[in-house]
Design goal:
By secondary structure, the protein is α+β, with helices and mostly antiparallel strands. The protein has helices at about 5-30, 110-115; strands spanning about 35-40, 55-60, 65-75, 85-90, 95-100, 100-105, 125-130, 140-145, 150-155. Helix content is about 20%, strand content about 40%. The strands form 2 sheets. A 5-stranded antiparallel β-sheet has the order 1-5-4-8-9, with no helix packed on it. It has a 4-stranded antiparallel β-sheet with strand order 2-3-7-6, with no helix packed on it.
Length: about 160
């Protein structure tokens, strides 16, 4: 069989299939990253928060989203294998929610500390739908490092 293909139609069909796959992948990734889950913080150490340098640098509300940026690190310990998570506490229902949080690489903290340790990944950003966060919730930082979990209470609250 000798079938001739129209190159333009074949290329358009391949491009359409590729574009549809990319849009589907982006949609799945976007909605998967919007997960806000209930967590148990009863085993977290709250007293060790005094040894952690932390800050909530900004809380921004845009459209239907909330973005929380900040940093957390223990001075004298490199932040290569630390997981930092933003946690929201709903006092009315007595529930803690873990927000999807990503580490952000910035060299600003390492340069500022100038103590020979790496804090490049100490900064974080959490983004979630506003509808998933109760109004008046308090912002906490859950700092997981060296097998321990430290729950840090900040003086920040969320009001829409």
């Amino acid at each position: 069989m000798n079938i001739q293909y129209d190159k333009k139609k074949t290329a358009a069909a391949a491009a359409g299939i590729f574009a549809a796959a990319v849009v589907l992948w982006l949609g799945i990734t976007f909605f998967a990253n919007q997960r806000v889950k209930v967590i148990d913080v009863s085993s977290c150490d709250r007293l060790a928060a005094a040894g952690v340098d932390y800050s909530i640098d900004s809380v921004n509300y845009k459209y239907d989203y909330i973005s929380i940026k900040g940093h957390a690190y223990q001075p004298g310990i490199s932040v290569d294998t630390v997981e930092t998570v933003v946690v929201i506490y709903d006092a009315i229902n007595d529930v803690y929610y873990e927000l999807p949080t990503e580490s952000v690489k910035r060299t600003k903290l390492t340069k500022k500390a100038n103590d020979g340790y790496n804090y490049d990944y100490a900064q974080f950003e959490a983004v979630a739908f506003k509808s998933k966060i109760p109004d008046g919730s308090r912002i906490f930082i859950l700092y997981r490092a060296n097998g321990s979990e430290i729950l840090i209470e900040t003086n920040e609250a969320i009001y829409f």
